[in-house]
Design a protein that fits this description.
GO terms for molecular function: heparin binding; integrin binding. Belongs to the CCN family. By secondary structure, the chain is mainly β. It folds into 4 domains: 76 residues, Irregular (Omega-AgatoxinV), CATH 4.10.40.20; 33 residues, Complement Module, domain 1 (Ribbon), CATH 2.10.70; 29 residues, no CATH class; 40 residues, Single Sheet (TSP-1 type 1 repeat). The chain has 2 helices and 14 strands. Strand 9 and strand 10 form a beta hairpin. The longest helix is centred in the last third of the chain and has 14 residues.
Length: 220
């Protein structure tokens, strides 16, 4: 009955199909007549304007008043995540980019980096390491810069007083090297005039060392 009331035969559809937002595919309307943009999670829907079934969505009329449309929701009321216009099911693992991997959980999502954030310190065989983006590769890699290039870059940095913004980066200070008395803690940081990673040290003292017991003279 609904189909007979809303669906006209023959079909009259626009020559040019609609341009859909990202994550909304072209599908046939409820009459199986014209192509429309599928409705996404939380968007209004009705008999004609159908939800994206490829994402497991159906038109939910449970909270709608009589005579009005519904809202696109998961068929089994399962919570999901919407990222960049795409809906992921609860428990699904996905990668919004090659650098991170995410896990949809209870309506939210947690992400972990896939690129290692390691720190390479200068060594005799690589005195001037530098991290660069490699064409065709997702994660940046460390390269060993030649000494003359390194000195030239330093000279430019000093003469121009770092014209580019230096994004501060550093590890946490390590534990004190001594359990009592003076020791030192270390960290790796670029908070210096050249914005270059270096190992830094500072003095520390957890607690004063206890006094040595006094030597008593031998009793004859």
């Amino acid at each position: 009955q609904v189909c007979a009331q809303l669906c006209r035969r023959p079909c009259y559809c626009p020559w040019v199909p609609p341009r859909c937002p990202r994550g909304s595919p072209l599908v046939l309307d409820g009459c199986g007549c014209c192509k429309i943009c599928a409705r996404r999670l939380g968007e209004p829907c009705d008999f004609l304007h159908v939800c994206d079934q490829s994402q497991g969505l159906v038109c939910d009329y449970s909270s709608a008043s009589a005579g009005t449309g519904g809202t696109c929701n998961f068929e089994d009321d399962e919570e999901g995540c919407e990222v960049n216009g795409r809906v992921y099911r609860d428990g699904e693992v996905f990668q919004p980019s090659c650098k991170i991997q995410c896990h949809c959980l209870d309506g939210g999502f947690n992400c972990i980096p896939l690129c290692q954030e390691d720190v390479r310190l200068p060594t005799p065989d690589c005195p001037y390491p530098r991290r660069v983006e490699i064409p065709g590769k997702c994660c940046p890699e460390w390269i060993c810069e030649a000494q003359d290039q390194h000195l030239l870059r330093d000279a430019r940095a000093v003469s121009a007083l770092l014209p580019y913004p230096c994004q501060e980066w550093g590890t946490e200070w390590s534990a004190c090297s001594a359990t009592c008395g003076l020791g030192f803690a270390t960290r790796v940081s670029n908070q210096n005039r050249y914005c270059r990673l270096e190992t830094q040290r500072r003095l520390c003292m957890v607690t004063p060392c206890p006094a040595l017991p006094a030597a008593f003279p031998a009793v004859s």
